[in-house]
Amino acid sequence: AQKITQTQPGMFVQEKEAVTLDCTYDTSDQSYGLFWYKQPSSGEMIFLIYQGSYDEQNATEGRYSLNFQKARKSTNLVISASQLGDSAMYFCAMRGSGGYNKLIFGAGTRLAVHP
Amino acid sequence: ETGVTQTPRHLVMGMTNKKSLKCEQHLGHNAMYWYKQSAKKPLELMFVYSLEERVENNSVPSRFSPECPNSSHLFLHLHTLQPEDSALYLCASSQESLIAYEQYFGPGTRLTVT
Nearest 5 degrees, angle CA B37-CA B39-CA B42? Predict the structure, then answer.
């Protein structure tokens, strides 16, 4: 069975500093995709960044980057230069088995950015 | 309208009521999803529609009934709900492919069952 684990229920960081949110996954598939989403208090899930299992380089999107360690089955999200607007829930997700984009989500990490 | 929209944003209903949640995507995608997000639980996939056909029903009780009349619209019909069905219901869409594409989510409907 596929599973996503986020072990940090809550994190806080000082504004302008970097923070790493952890995510480990379990799958027997050779080909899979890993996603990170942000959910502000408004409720909408906002796509942040994607890493494919065959991508050799770590994905980056602006201030977001992934530390993808395939052998360890981990894909940690790094947010650089934190901003107050980064305060939200962050979810790691994996595309599950099957011919369609079924996503399996972790429990999430609540990030608080302090001024 | 752009992206994925959901109506209503908030809904309070009694256990004997019948209501429907509506989702519309303006992205030209061919797959749509319903998720349930309860407090202190991971996001749960409820239903998947691909090319307007239901391809997954994740053991959801029959009091939830989805409908996908076309690739842009998705409904979730609700009847005789229980208080534990109170949650945020999120709709998403994506382009189905062998390549993993991100799903785009709507703002959700906050449902309270009294």
Answer: 50
Provide the b/e sequence for A44-63 (b: ≥16 CB within 10 Å).
bbebbbbbebeeeeebeeee
Q: Which stretch of DSSP H or E encloses residue A85?
A: none
- Give me the pLDDT at residue B99, please: 63
Cβ under 8 Å to B: A residues 47-106: 47, 50, 52, 91, 93, 95, 98-106
Cβ–Cβ under 8 Å, residues B10 and A62: no
pLDDT digits over A39-78, tens only?
999 888 999 999 999 888 899 999 999 999 999 999 999 9
Q: Which residues of chain B have pLDDT under 70?
A: 1, 97-100
Dump pLDDT digits (tens) for B79-98: 999 999 999 999 999 987 66
Alpha carbons within 13 A on the beta-carbon side of B47: 21
How far apart are the CA of B10 and the nearest CA of chain A, in angstroms?
12
Partners of B110 on chain A (C-beta within 8 Å) are 43
Nearest to A45 among B41, B90, B100 (CB): B90
Residue B31 has its nearest CB partner, among A33, A101, A104, at A101
